[in-house]
From TrEMBL:
The protein's name in its UniProt record: DUF1468 domain-containing protein
Residue ranges of the TM segments: 6-26, 47-63, 88-115, 127-145
Keywords carried by this UniProt record: Membrane, Transmembrane, Transmembrane helix
Domain of life from the UniProt record: Bacteria
């Protein structure tokens, strides 16, 4: 079995476990007044699980393949060392660092740093443009989540309110 199908099989298993949790475990603890709502907290996880199962089955059954059989963009697991694994691992590390730094340094600075590090990792060399877009994007996302959706996100580092 090809590497993409092995990855799809693992993804299918993860989506099935996630779907089981979304369909059965999350809904069991809902209070009675929320059980009449048309949209529950588990609605989006249910949609994600279903879409993940459909996509992974499409890859497992080979629906995404062309008629020619072999596509030049297929992953060759024997030449895995030739791919840009360093960039991928650095981006995954940046995502983990972003999640860990979100509370201590605040949403705005963590998001700004993640976007700048991600852009540099992917090869962006127009530094002024990168910094401007990262600052703008972090500010817009914070404004939309905080002001429009009404979800509190601490924009500043956690140690700053103690200083004031």
């Amino acid at each position: 079995m090809a590497l993409d199908r092995w990855i799809a099989l693992v993804f299918l298993i993860l989506c099935l476990v996630y779907g089981f949790a979304a369909f059965f475990a999350m809904d069991a603890g809902l209070p009675p007044f929320m059980q009449r709502n048309p949209i529950w907290p588990s609605t989006f996880p249910k949609i994600l699980a279903c879409l993940g199962v459909v996509v992974s089955l499409a890859v497992l059954l080979g629906f995404e393949k062309s008629d020619k059989g072999h596509v030049a963009s297929d992953i060759n697991y024997r030449r895995l060392h030739e791919y840009k694994l360093g960039q991928a691992l650095l981006l995954i590390g940046a995502m983990v660092a972003y999640a860990l730094l979100l509370r201590p340094i605040g949403f705005l600075s963590a998001t700004f740093l993640f976007l700048v590090v991600g852009g540099l990792t992917l090869g962006e060399r127009r530094y002024v443009l990168l910094v401007a877009i990262a600052a703008f994007a972090a500010g817009v996302v914070w404004y939309l989540v905080q002001q429009v959706l009404g979800i509190f996100l601490s924009p500043l580092p956690s140690f700053l309110p103690h200083l004031l």
